[in-house]
Amino acid sequence: MKEKGRMGASIIAYLLEKPSKLLITIYLGNDFVNVAISAIVTSICIHIFGDVGISIAIGIATFLLIVFGDIAPKTFAIKNNEKVALFSAYPLKIFYILVSPIQKIFSVIANRAISILGGKRFDEETVITEEEIRTLIDVGEDEGTIKSDEKEMIQSVFELGDTRVEDIMTRREDIFSIDVNTDIRNAITSSYYSRIPVYDGNIDNIAGILYLKDLMKYTYPEQILPKLKNILHPPFIVSGKKRVNELLKEFQKKKVHMAIVLDEHSRVEGLVTMEDVLIELVGEF
Fold first, then answer.
1. Does 188 score more than 80 pLDDT?
2. Whole-angstrom Cα distance, residue 198 to residue 179?
3. Distance between CA 22 and CA 173 in Å, rounded?
4. Within a 10 A sphere around the Cβ of 212, how many other Cβ atoms?
5. Which of 65, 138, 168, 229 has a Cα at 20 to 30 A from 210?
6. Which positions ≥6 away from 284 have C-beta within 8 Å?
7. Rounded to an integer, what distance in angstroms lies between the CA atom of residue 214 and that of residue 212?
8. 201: left (phi over 0), alpha (psi -120 to 50) or beta
9. How many CA atoms lie within 13 A of 270 on its CB side?
């Protein structure tokens, strides 16, 4: 929202910089309204019904608070989260400033109580666990704020840390590769792959990776052709036991899209590409 320049977005960003203070502000506002409504309803009911009005007030106030103070506004906010956030930004900031002195008092008391109980201070950074995020995703799907395909994609990000390269790689017997002595013109027409492993003698002796784009300038018959080994890129070697999330980081760091997978005996076990990782993330495309 802030990047789009939406009115109120900067205030929302300001409030979110101090989440503990914002939370205390919201609690104070919520409790103030609850107490005020209960007091008003009780006063009216006692005035109309006398002493029995207290029991009636409890029922009416409970109904009003649950329906109009909890379920209805929260449901509306979930379905219109951006509009509600922008609309409430200004009044929330004003209330935030007004109750700032009270915030500090409650914060000190809360932190003292938490420290005594051996918990983490309220204003310290909280690390959200994977399980908590998965729970939030499930809740979001149930409430309609997260679509099922979005849920699957988020969950697949976590699963990358549990998946190993050997689980997604192309097996040795299915690798398309060419010999280093292959004529360049034959190499151009031999495959539709953009990157091709090139071996010297046998598949376990990978000489490098051929990028098809490097061959595009040698398409004219009169051109002098270099030897294939002179235009190869060094192979990126990984273990099949490496986790896929780590592989993705290395792909990004090294700016490569292909890796040769070796086993513990330095034999070629398979081949893995950036496309394999993306398929693991979002499925076939």
1. no
2. 6
3. 59
4. 14
5. 168
6. none
7. 5
8. left
9. 15
Q: How far apart are CA 268 and CA 204, in angstroms?
A: 5
Which pLDDT tens digit goes with each residue over 196-210? 999 999 999 999 999
Sign of the CA dihedral running 214, 216, 217, 220: positive
- For the entire predicted model, the pTM comes to 0.51
Where in 118-235 does DSSP place strands (E)?
170-171, 178-179, 195-200, 202-211
pLDDT at 3 over 50: no
Token readout for 153 is: 């994609």
Question: What confidence tens digit (pLDDT) does each residue in 102-131 have?
Answer: 877 877 787 787 777 766 655 545 555 656
Domains, the chain, with CATH or none: 9-126 (no CATH), 165-282 (3.10.580.10)
**Alpha-carbon dihedral angle through residues 200, 202, 205, 209, given to the nearest 10 degrees:** 60
Query: Which candidate, 98, 117, 74, places its Cα nearest to that of 21?
Result: 98
Q: Is residue 201 a contact partner of residue 187, using CB atoms and an 8 Å limit? A: no
Residues sharing a CB contact under 8 Å with residue 274, sequence separation 6 or more, in sequence order: 248, 251, 257, 258
